[in-house]
Write a structure and sequence with these properties.
This protein is mostly beta strands and about 60 residues long. A five-stranded mixed β-sheet has the order 2-1-5-3-4, with helices on one face.
Length: about 60
Amino acid sequence: MITVGEEKIPWKEGMTVAQVMEAIEDGHKYAVVRLNGKPVSRPNFYKTPVPDHSEIIPIPMIAGG
């Protein structure tokens, strides 16, 4: 099982960050997530494996000035 924010998602062998982010239904596109405390940027979502029992925290990008 993987925790994404408050949501639980079943883990599958070979799962990537991209697959996890596609499985959640919050409607946001994230540029960065924290996978077990380490930042992963969008260009690496498709090649970064997610171990079972991981925690992913989506980091929303905030614009301002």
